[in-house]
Write a structure and sequence with these properties.
Layout (H helix, E strand, L loop, with lengths): L2 H11 L10 H12 L7 E6 L6 H12 L5 E5 L7 H13 L9 H11 L5 E8 L2 H7 L11 E6 L2 H6 L5 E4 L5 H12 L10 H11 L3 H11 L4 H9 L7 H12 L3 H14 L4 H7 L3 H10 L4 E3 L2 E3 L2 H14 L9 E2 L2 H9 L9 E5 L14 E5 L3 E2 L2 E2 L19 E4 L18 E3 L20 E3 L21 E3 L21 E3 L3
Parallel strand pairs: 1-4, 1-5, 2-3, 3-4, 8-9, 9-10, 10-13, 13-14, 14-15, 15-16, 16-17
Antiparallel strand pairs: 6-7, 11-12
Helix pairs in contact: 1-2, 4-5, 8-9, 8-10, 12-16, 13-15, 13-16
Length: 507
């Protein structure tokens, strides 16, 4: 019998049954080299990942695996929710049976831990750490404890493991693969290892959407258990699974730990910039680069090459926070991304200065007009055909008052005018993206846009000229004119711009 088979049988007979055994064998193989079973050195292993990814399972797997070989063991659950002093007392009770009711100070507590655990071979699992002080007062220095000891730390914040306490190895707890996900979902939805007949495609859709997050698979499976196919279809059509409170509450714990600026950048990304390039977001939002790094360390986003990727349930959690801030009134939301909310505001003339950003899919809506001061405005177009777009309408008059002073990012796939309005004031604009527009030129006369880094007019078939940009946009880095077949010439001054790093004239 292989060691993983033996361990899996042993785990099933102890703490683990049902959902806990899904994916255990593969993760044990990955963890084996980190844990170093049988070695006499002291090792500290950190495991991190998004909420609901089963970090608890990893901690319990290791606890069950090696606890019988040690002088004492302690599993400290949900550290972030408990008093450090009480956890110190629990650690001492677990390992040496000492219940010191006179212990009243965490500084005294860590000194007692040092004395009582001196050179003992121990296992300590510190679960759900969210600040360095918890490690400082609960994790003994490796020099204090005996050879063969193991300390396991689980957290959502990778930075705690990198910066603190000399963690020897860091393990990222990843999601389940497709087969594991289907098994876990089926266990809760059907009480068997695979979907019932007739439910296969619906189950496949949900499993693909959950993207390996065990918490989502369990909650969704339990929610749909015992329901008919038509009830499943109705729930999926209404996207009821997106706002499951049990999932959001777990994920929101990470959001609540962020500082104010990082929270706002997180909400901007969930509403506007998921799937966009990291460099773009860093240019547009103040402090974004530092915030993006924090969000990555907290497992709230990842990257595909340089593109920002969020788990669907993390993105939905962020959008739900924005909705809740308005108490169900879209006109009070800071960010708008749903067409129905935008048109409700327009049809009732309810626009307010609270609205900071709009992301709008113009192919799904009626003609629109803008009347707000914004930081970000994006009007996307789903149905592109060849070098043009289907003629959905963004209707504006030539002299309309553009919401431009605070605007940092302007993206429209359906910009209808020949030029930017004469009253356009883009002093804070970082990116101008007007692909597939009807523009003949950028603007008439001179406009000073010192912060502008990117101009993208790709596939603007009616574009025939652009102004001299060296004086108007002295910091321009990217000028993208791909597919602008009727562009007659470029100003000579463009070739003299020191800042320009990318000029795309391809067809």
């Amino acid at each position: 019998m292989q060691i993983t088979d033996y361990i899996s049988d042993r785990l099933r007979s102890q703490y683990f049954r049902g959902d806990y055994v899904v994916g255990i064998d593969k993760r044990l193989k990955e963890l084996k080299s980190f844990i170093g079973i049988g070695f006499d050195d002291v090792r500290m292993l950190g495991a991190y990942g998004i909420g609901g990814i089963s970090k608890t399972t990893i901690g319990k797997v290791i606890y069950n695996l090696i606890s019988c070989h040690l002088d004492g063991v302690s599993f400290l659950p949900n550290v972030r929710e408990q008093s450090i002093l009480q956890l110190q007392k629990k650690l001492l009770i677990d390992i040496i049976g000492m219940n010191d009711k006179n212990l009243n100070d965490v500084d005294e507590g860590i000194n007692v831990i040092k004395r009582k655990l001196w050179q003992k071979k121990v296992l300590i699992v510190v679960h759900n750490v969210d600040c360095s002080s918890q490690l400082e007062y609960l994790v003994p220095n490796p020099d204090w404890i005996g050879g063969g000891s193991r300390i396991i730390i689980t957290t959502r914040d990778k930075l705690l493991l990198v910066d603190e306490h000399g963690v020897d190895a860091i393990y990222e707890v990843e999601g389940l693969d497709y087969e594991e996900s289907m098994y876990l979902f089926s266990f809760y939805a059907f009480k068997q290892s695979c979907p019932k007949q007739g439910y296969e495609q619906l189950s496949q859709y949900i499993v693909n959407y959950a993207k390996g997050l065990p918490l989502a698979l369990k909650v969704l499976g339990s929610f749909l258990h015992g329901r008919t196919i038509s009830e499943w279809e109705k729930a999926l059509d209404k996207q009821a699974y997106l706002s499951m409170k049990e999932i959001h509450d777990v994920l929101k714990i990470s959001f609540d730990r962020l500082d104010y600026q990082t929270q706002n950048i997180f909400l901007d990304i969930t509403c506007f910039f998921e799937g966009e390039e990291r460099d773009l977001v860093s240019r547009i939002l103040d402090g974004a680069e530092k915030a993006i790094t924090t969000l990555y360390d907290m497992s709230l986003l990842t990257f595909s090459n340089n593109w920002i990727v969020m788990h669907p349930f993390v993105q939905q959690m962020g959008q739900e926070i924005v909705c809740q801030e308005s108490h169900g009134e879209p006109r009070k939301q800071s960010r708008l991304w749903r067409s129905r909310d935008f048109y409700h505001i327009l049809s009732n003339n309810e626009g307010t200065n609270v609205i900071e950003g709009i992301f709008l899919n113009a192919s799904a809506v009626e003609p629109i007009e803008f009347t707000s001061e914004l930081r970000s405005l994006k009007i996307c177009q789903d149905l592109k055909c060849g070098s043009g777009v289907k003629n959905y309408g963004v209707h504006v008059s030539i002299d309309f008052e553009f919401p431009s002073y605070d605007l940092r990012y302007l993206h429209s796939d359906v910009y209808p005018l020949e030029y930017l309005p004469s009253n356009f004031d883009g002093k804070n604009l970082f990116e101008l993206n007007l692909q597939y527009s009807k523009m003949r030129g950028l603007w008439k006369g001179s406009k000073i846009l010192e912060k502008l880094k990117v101009i993208n007019l790709s596939h603007s078939q009616q574009l025939v000229q652009i102004p001299g940009l060296s004086a108007d946009t002295p910091n321009l880095e990217d000028l993208i004119l791909e597919g602008c077949a009727n562009l007659e010439k470029l100003p000579r001054s463009i070739w003299e711009m020191d800042s320009l790093a990318n000029l795309d004239l391809s067809h």
